[in-house]
């Protein structure tokens, strides 16, 4: 499935911050160097950052890897957040209140959020899980 951007989305597109690039590159490196570790995440993830991009991380099935678009793979959790929210999630020292962010409209999750938490733990080098008080959006 190919994702087509509207003229407004193309106009709003901007370069990602270095922390976002580092995160995506670290996930890509795991996909290349240690694809077996992807199965520890236990589900497929769709990540959408407005103005930056969409990625599908396929951890289960015949073609594991990171794809730079929304694919037609079964998704276990979909995350839509502002870029700065992702950066906060990547910092294990922060106590992120996702309920507050969801109410403010800068974060939304649908599905099993623990799948995304396992990805964050892997991205943080297997460190502590993100402390969250998340709720699914209505």
How would you describe this structure in keywords?
alpha/beta; disordered C terminus; globular; 138 residues; two-stranded parallel ribbon; 5 helices; five-stranded mixed β-sheet
SSE layout:
Blueprint: H1 7-12, H2 18-33, E1 45-49, E2 53-58, E3 65-67, E4 77-81, H3 83-90, E5 95-96, H4 98-104, E6 107-111, H5 113-123, E7 131-132
Parallel strand pairs: 1-4, 5-7
Antiparallel strand pairs: 1-2, 2-3, 4-6
Describe the 3D structure.
Strands 3-2-1-4-6 form a 5-stranded mixed beta sheet. A two-stranded parallel sheet has the order 5-7. With 138 residues, it is of the alpha/beta class. It starts with 6 loop residues before the first helix and ends in a 6-residue tail after the last strand. A hairpin with a 3-residue loop joins strand 1 and strand 2. The radius of gyration is 14 Å and the shape is globular.
> Distance between the terminal alpha carbons, to the nearest Å?
26 Å
**Topology pattern, helix = H, strand = E:** HHEEEEHEHEHE
DSSP, total strands: 7
Shape: globular
* Helical content band: 25-40%
Mean pLDDT: 77
- Gyration radius, in Å: 14 Å
Structural class: alpha/beta
Strand order of the largest sheet: 3-2-1-4-6
Q: How many helices does DSSP assign? A: 5
Uncertain parts = 127-138
DSSP strand (E) fraction?
A: 15-25%
Q: Could you describe the largest sheet, including whether it forms a barrel?
A: 5 strands, mixed
């Amino acid at each position: 499935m190919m994702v087509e951007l509207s003229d407004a989305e193309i106009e709003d597109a901007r370069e990602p911050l270095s922390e976002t690039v580092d995160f995506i590159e670290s996930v890509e490196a795991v996909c290349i160097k240690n694809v077996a570790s992807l199965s520890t995440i236990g589900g497929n993830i769709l990540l959408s950052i407005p103005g930056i991009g969409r990625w599908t991380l396929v951890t289960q099935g015949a073609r594991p890897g990171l794809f730079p678009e929304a694919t037609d793979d079964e998704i276990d959790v979909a995350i839509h957040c502002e870029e700065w929210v992702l950066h906060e999630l990547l910092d294990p020292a922060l106590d992120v209140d996702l309920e507050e962010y969801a109410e403010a409209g800068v974060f939304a999750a649908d599905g099993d959020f623990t799948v995304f938490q396992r990805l964050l733990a892997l991205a943080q080098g297997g460190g502590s899980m993100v402390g969250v008080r998340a709720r699914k959006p209505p």
